[in-house]
Amino acid sequence: MSAHLKEYLDYYQTLIAPGYAVLVTGAWGVGKTYQVQKAIRKEDYWYVSLYGLPTVNDIHAAVIAEAHPRYTRGQGIASQLGELVKSFWGPAAAASRISSLLTPILRRSLKPSKVLVFDDLERSNIPLKELLGVINVYLEHHGFRVIVIANDGKIKDDLTLQKEKLFGQSIKVNPELYEAYAHFSKRLSCPDQRKFISIHRDLICTIFQESQEQSLRILNHVIEDIGRLFDALDVNLHKYKDPLKRLVAAHCVLNVHIRAGTIGEVDLLNRYEYWFSYSQNLRNQRSSDIEKPEIVKIREMHQSVEFMFPALEDSILVDMLIKGKYSQEEIREALRRNAAFQDIESTPAWKIVWTFFSRSDEDLKRAIDKMNQQVFYREIVEPGEILHVFALYLFMAKEKWAIRSYDDVVNEGVKYIDGLCDAEKLKPTHPRYKWRDVREEYDGYGFMINEETKPYFQVIKEHLDSCQDDVQKNALETKAMELLNLMYTSPEEFLSKVYSEFSDNYQYSGFPLLSLIAPKTFVDAWLNTEYRFWRSISSSVELQLGRSENYNNIKVRDWAIAVLHEMRNQQQLENGPRATRITGAIPELPENIEREVQAQTA
Q1: What residue ranges define each of the domains in the chain, with the CATH number in brackets?
Q2: What is the distance between the alpha carbons of residues 224 and 575, in angstroms, rounded to a whole number?
Q3: CB < 8 Å & 24+ apart, contacts of 436-445
Q4: For residues 381 and 420, is the Cβ–Cβ distance under 8 A?
Q5: Residue 437: its pLDDT value, please?
Q6: 239 close to 330: Cβ distance less than 8 angstroms
Q7: Could you tell me which of 316, 432, 336, 430 has the C-alpha nearest to residue 384?
Q8: Is the pLDDT of residue 600 over 90?
Q9: pLDDT recorded at residue 431
Q10: In this predicted structure, what is the pLDDT of residue 110?
Q11: In this structure, are residues 36 and 131 in contact, taking their beta carbons and an 8 Å threshold?
Q12: Cβ contacts of 448 within 8 Å, gap of 6 or more
């Protein structure tokens, strides 16, 4: 509670019929009502909210209901009197008669023994002039001490002209941050949550002060959300005190400004791009006239908080801060992968370099040396990790951490990938998952690139894609020959790899492996198996062609058409039951492909 507020209200309560009211102002959500009610004992005031009261008579009725609880607000004194007046004098006379009836009631029943507190002045539907007239009645005619609580910024122009006549003292209330923090923390149901919130009190309050936000309602929501974040954390992560502190700080900064409406989802997802573009434009134009994005203003407010690269990826941030979803499973998994929440000895070197913001100079140097050594000996073989390493090299070149140009990094990256190919250590592209289409991050970390380094990174990425395709092609051709051999030696095992009815672990149903076998060779092997396998092999062909990733593959479609031609040729060469069995085993291809076959044979 503000000391100056309590001091003046203590003095004001000693006055008898002061003839003026006290106006308590402040921004929305700063805790005006809370502080007034803390400054005056509950038994020393009557409280009336003006919010939603439609008429002056309802204000009088609310005062009486507060002073005399037996008159319930649910029934409404004004409405009860209104019905009575209408029954005697009719609807037209009701308004004037109610006022004349209420006046003697007020005079007889209300004594100025307590302070009258009127709240929500700016939220009333009654014209301001009439409201102030009502307040004046209680001041001048009934001798009350009156406190009015208002966000005068909402009605500043109208109130300025009239408040000097009515209000003898105006007191602006500022948030009592630490008192409110303690109050909100006590409302958390879990003792462990309260302890966690208490540990980070100074950090959260400092961030809130830096944000220049006045609404304690936002602080309350932030405290509740950090309690939810605590619930989602694995207990084993609590030993990483500094990373946890940075996580709470980043969450708090983004949460405060999203709740305040300063930024939204688009700003959250593009925060780094907005900041980098602004920095580049400022550097190139050398002018201060460039419009500053909100995310840049926020970064300047909170210079000690790193929220550009928080421990949680953007999708989880959106879930928490925009959608209100705190998935324990996703948050825990993301933090387990994060280098900051791993022992440094077991953390990949590139992750330590990526998180250089929070690393000591010694740890960073050791990590860079280790990463260089791994590149020299070609120990990094995971495609995503390869891209991370060379994205970091481009970043280091941009920041002048090393004597290395962008072209040097590209040449080194190409040679590294070629060396892995030569050593047969490069992993192939996964036929089912076109990783290149979503290659913006790996293992929960976005690649450390920007608009300046992106073209060079793209060269390395495309070369990696091409080499992985070559490795995949060679690998698939080898697997295709293995499948062909299984058709002769073990049809059951062949089908278990390509057809779901034979095994839940079928490996190649979606891969275009069969199309790598010459159509005649495939059909010869097919018809060499026992009759009982023919229909299942036919189904495996239909399944492979039916896969969406293969359906528009011209090579696969041409292969399927060639297989169909070959089966029909074999059917014509046979007679009797065998010819009938071949007819029954011919794959049922999509209508458009079947039309192509018919057109070719017409």
Answers
A1: 3-174 (3.40.50.300), 179-342 (no CATH), 356-472 (no CATH), 492-601 (no CATH)
A2: 79
A3: 436/461, 436/465, 439/384, 439/387, 441/313, 442/383, 442/384, 442/385, 442/387, 442/388, 443/337, 443/351, 443/384, 443/385, 443/388, 444/313, 444/334, 444/337, 444/338, 445/351, 445/354, 445/388
A4: yes
A5: 43
A6: no
A7: 430
A8: no
A9: 52
A10: 76
A11: no
A12: 354, 388, 391, 392, 394, 395
Rounded Cα gap, residues 474 and 130, in angstroms: 87
pLDDT band at 154 (very low <50, low <70, confident <90, very high): low
| pLDDT at residue number 435 | 44
According to DSSP, the residues that pair with 101 across neighbouring strands are none
181-210: average pLDDT: 93
Q: How far is CA 49 from CA 61, 104, 314, 325, in A?
A: 12, 23, 42, 34
Q: pLDDT tens digit string along 279-315?
A: 777 777 655 677 889 999 999 999 888 887 778 889 9
| Mean model confidence pLDDT for the chain | 84
User: Which residues does 307 contact at the CB level (< 8 Å), separation at least 6?
Assistant: 249, 250, 253, 254, 271, 298, 299
What's the whole-model pTM score? Answer: 0.55
Q: Which residues contact 36 (CB under 8 A, 6 or more apart)?
A: 5, 9, 24, 117, 147, 149
Structure tokens at 492: 């059951």
How much of the chain is in helix, strand and coil states, percent to nearest 5?
A: 65, 5, 30
Q: Are 329 and 312 in contact (CB under 8 A)?
A: no
Instruction: Give the three-class secondary structure for 424.
Output: coil
- Give the lowest-confidence range in 126-135, 273-282, 299-308, 565-574: 273-282
Please state the rounded mean pLDDT for residues 147-168: 74
**Cβ partners under 8 Å of residue 384, min gap 6:** 435, 439, 442, 443
Q: One-letter amino acid identity for 322?
A: I
Pull the structure tokens for residue 43.
Answer: 């038994």
Strand, coil or helix: 185: helix
